[in-house]
């Protein structure tokens, strides 16, 4: 069924994108959506129920959301910062309770008190400032620390001259297999969470014969606590464009697509500017190489759905289908957007490629550990004395990052959740034994993920934190498989009843629930929730025992 729908959507391709039409139709408060969606159904020859089921999936397209003037961030870092309730009250007073809604993480975790108003991300301190001033400040000042322990950083160095930045591609345009060789030598692994070697994906797509191929940048950074992709998109967009461009040359794709979450309006603006600047650089390279380097970029803005960060859901979203997760195989490298070979990578993964091609794969692989090469961006939330973005060598002791670069926390904390809502809950006592790399975290029963760090304050109840994780998962579940769709809701209900009504949770039932979600879920949203919950049950058993039989 979905293959048929995909084929119908592919007829109009990206130029008359079904997804863009659906989001446009859904974004007008008060418009007759029924009529608009019927028209789309006729135009694309896709049943109205399919168009409606795609449209109804997204938070930003529902009527409740559209009626709001201001959206309060309810991401984990804002929730644990202790400022959430005060900010909620202040916004309700200023804008009216019925005009104040909520939004999933805005990636302003360094402030811990953010909200979105008229496509501008603000903090508590901005509440009474005129919007133009807030916008201006956002562009001009760095609102948090950007630091590193790496002598020659991969990501955070400024890009001063675009012509020399892109100019190193002259060494590769005649034979792009040289670029692939360097990437293989670097042993770069994807930074979107799973850590899959990039060169294997590239070789697979490059050797798959097809009339059309795509490169997609996964800029849907939905993990509450992570804002490193946001920083790269806003401050170093050319590092991403560079990576996508060379990827396109390697696999034979002529189209690069940014899928940027709608909660990051500043990133959309910055990437669009960079795309305009890229056009001139591409022309210079084409003239120098004597080849028409045919590669164009497109930007797609998400419409509020965490699961669209999962690669197959993201691809379905761009196609205008309901963004449910696809079962794999086939993998996107051979069967991706519109069924064509597609390299889909995380923002940070693409951002590594300029360094690898300028310094060489061997040099890159001398950074980091034996299995986790290179450097990693880490996001520290507002609980730290120096909140911000830090580029560190893979393998750096975690304590050096949290207590050295981050300066420790402003108030006592009992644990850190690292790697987003599906990342482990690390008690402070365990920090000393960990290094910041994939293996160290896995060996200790945690997950590095995208390396966003959210502190759990001493006085913040662990049960409330777990309730938040179950609530998040049940809200964001795509609904395709029942262990996640039903399991996350049952877990939420059990915990809610225990917290609000004093009922005791049967431990065996709860363990069964976690096991079913872990083993039976189709993707890591349902399957990964068990990890932080089991960490909490293990490390905070005395705090949690009163809620269990
Ligand atoms: C629930 C869920 C959410 C995800 N969210 C993101 C995301 O926001 N950004 C991202 O790059 N990868 C995310 N991923 C991982 C992607 O599916 C995919 O593995 C990744 O984008 C591949 O890029 P990489 O090879 O550069 O890591 C998510 C996965 C799951 C299961
Ligand atoms: S685990 Fe959840 S999000 Fe993933 S496919 Fe199943 S229902 Fe969808």
Looking at this protein, list some descriptive labels.
5 domains, 26 helices, Rossmann fold, 4-stranded mixed sheet, binds iron/sulfur cluster, 6-stranded mixed sheet, binds flavin mononucleotide, alpha/beta
Bound molecules: flavin mononucleotide, iron/sulfur cluster
* Strand segment count: 16
According to CATH, what is the topology of the largest domain?
Rossmann fold
CATH class of the largest domain: Alpha Beta
Strand line-up across the major sheet: 5-11-10-16-13-14
What does the average pLDDT come to?
A: 94
What overall geometry do the principal axes of the alpha carbons give?
A: globular
Helical content class: 40-55%
Residue share in β-strands: 5-15%
Poorly predicted ranges: none
What is the name of the CATH architecture of the largest domain? Answer: 3-Layer(aba) Sandwich
Number of discrete domains: 5
Give the distance, in angstroms, between the N- and C-terminal Cα atoms. 46 Å
Query: What is the C-alpha radius of gyration, as a whole number of Å?
Result: 23 Å
- The CATH superfamily name of the largest domain is NADH-ubiquinone oxidoreductase 51kDa subunit
Biggest β-sheet description: 6 strands, mixed
Provide a count of the helices.
Answer: 26
The class by helix and strand makeup works out as: alpha/beta
